[in-house]
Structure formats: structure tokens, C-alpha cells
Design goal:
- With about 220 residues, this protein is mainly alpha-helical.
- It contains six helices and no strands.
- The chain is elongated and about 50 Å long.
- Keywords: Signal.
Length: about 220
């Protein structure tokens, strides 16, 4: 009987030791999870460091966003028409497809740099597209900046909206050539003066692709 009691007591002690070890392991696991969670939260809340940028980069985005927006608008106007030369509609689709994502990318830069996003064309003051770039809108807007190169006036936009067929195609090409030339001028300024690597790279892409599109548009225009 004594031996049986001793065995029972030993079993109870062993069970207690196992339970104690399990509790210690669970406590250590919980502590590790809390530490990892705290580390993850701290990392998530830490400020994201960004590459340096300068005023030329901000100016580039402030100018190029509405400039691109107008190119997309012009392309939408043309693509809504019937009887347009397929070469011109293909080019308009290409221009819209390239510039719409660039608008979103530049808006993202402005947000990252602490600048308010540029409004859409429809949200801008009704002063005429060709007058954009004037006024006094401060750092978040486009005040104290030279007029954007190549912007199409509201009168010319109205003419494009009202034109049909070959006339519409010719107007689109004529205005878009000048529009692209203005974009290239602004992009060259960014290449020369900009600091933010992604913005400078976009500017280089604009110069290359839009010069090629100008050459194509001139060829098409000469054959219409």
C-alpha cells in the first residue's frame, strides 16, 4: 500500500512538472509573438524614406499631368468619331494608353512629396485650356509657373469636337504634333534640372516616344 501511494505521488509530481514546462513554453511563445507583433507594427508605422527630389521635379509633375490629361481628352474626342483613318485612331489609342498610366504615376509622386494632387481637366477653372499655367495657385497648384508648352486652346478643342472624318483627323494630328513638341520641351527641362530618378527617367521616355510619334503623325498628315 505504501509503495502504491509512493508511485501515485510520483505520477502527480511528474504531471505537475510537465504542465509547468508546457506553461513556460506557452508563455515564451506568447512573449515572442508579442515581440514580433510589436516589431512588425513599428516597421509598418515607420516613415518610408524616399529618394530626394527638387523643385524641378515638382514643376515637371505639375505641368505634365494636365498636359497629359489634355492629350487623353483629345484622343477620347477623336476615338468617339466615325470614319476616322485607322492609322489615326490607332495612334490616338496608343497615346491614351501611354499617358493615362503616367498621369497616375505622377499624381503618386506629388502625394509622396507632400503636394496635393492635380485636379482633372474638368475640375480646373474654365479659363480655356490654352491659358493653363497662369494665375497664382501656390505650391500645391500651378501659380507663378510659365504657361505649359503646346497646350491646345478651348477654341481649337471645340473645333476638334465639331469636326468629322478627314478634317477631324487632320486637326487632331496638327494639334497633337504641337502638343507633343511642348511635352518634349518640358521633359528636356526635367532631364537637365530634375533630381528624382523616376521622374528623370519618365522624361527621357517622353522625349523618345513622343518624338517617334511626331514623326509618324507627320507622315500620316502628309498622306491625308
Amino acid at each position: 500500500m505504501t509503495k502504491l501511494m509512493m508511485l501515485s505521488a510520483g505520477a502527480v509530481v511528474a504531471a505537475a512538472l510537465v504542465a509547468g514546462c508546457s506553461n513556460d513554453k506557452a508563455d515564451r511563445t506568447a512573449d515572442m509573438e508579442m515581440t514580433n507583433s510589436a516589431t512588425t507594427s513599428a516597421a509598418a508605422s515607420a516613415p518610408v524614406t524616399s529618394e530626394a527630389h527638387n523643385d524641378a521635379d515638382v514643376m515637371f509633375a505639375h505641368h505634365m499631368i494636365p498636359h497629359h490629361q489634355q492629350a487623353v481628352e483629345m484622343s477620347d474626342v477623336l476615338l468617339a468619331k466615325q470614319g476616322i483613318d485607322p492609322r489615326v485612331t490607332e495612334l490616338a489609342t496608343q497615346i491614351k494608353g501611354a499617358q493615362a498610366p503616367e498621369i497616375a504615376q505622377m499624381q503618386g509622386w506629388l502625394k509622396q512629396w507632400g503636394n496635393p494632387p492635380m485636379p482633372s481637366m474638368s475640375q480646373m477653372p474654365q479659363q480655356g485650356h490654352g491659358d493653363m499655367g497662369h494665375g497664382n495657385m501656390g505650391q500645391g497648384g500651378m501659380g507663378d509657373m510659365p504657361a505649359m508648352q503646346g497646350m491646345v486652346s478651348e477654341t481649337d478643342m471645340t473645333a476638334l469636337r465639331n469636326a468629322q472624318g478627314a478634317e477631324a483627323a487632320k486637326l487632331y494630328l496638327t494639334h497633337m504634333i504641337a502638343h507633343h513638341e511642348g511635352a518634349i520641351t518640358m521633359a528636356q527641362d526635367e532631364i537637365k534640372d530634375g533630381q528624382y530618378p523616376a521622374a528623370v527617367e519618365m522624361a527621357r521616355t517622353i522625349v523618345k516616344t513622343q518624338q517617334a510619334e511626331i514623326d509618324t503623325m507627320r507622315q500620316i498628315l502628309g498622306s491625308l
